[in-house]
Design a protein that fits this description.
The protein is an all-alpha fold. The protein has a domain of about 35 residues. The protein contains 2 helices and no strands. The chain is elongated, with a radius of gyration of 20 Å. Pfam families: KGG.
Length: about 55
């Protein structure tokens, strides 16, 4: 089996993979667990989008 020498592959460098994951976590908007207002707004927007093609 050939060795993977792809420099973009973090399987060979756990520290690099950990750092990349940490950066991704810091840059993400996070979930709605701690922000009820944001969750409510997102749900409202999703409901409006899903209802837009329906007749009342």
């Amino acid at each position: 089996m050939a060795t993977n020498k792809n420099p973009g592959n973090f399987a060979n460098d756990r520290e690099k993979a950990s750092e990349a994951g940490r950066k991704g976590g810091h840059n993400s908007g996070g979930n709605f667990a701690n922000d009820r207002q944001r969750a409510s707004e997102a749900g409202r927007k999703g409901g409006q989008k899903s209802q837009s093609g329906r007749e009342s």
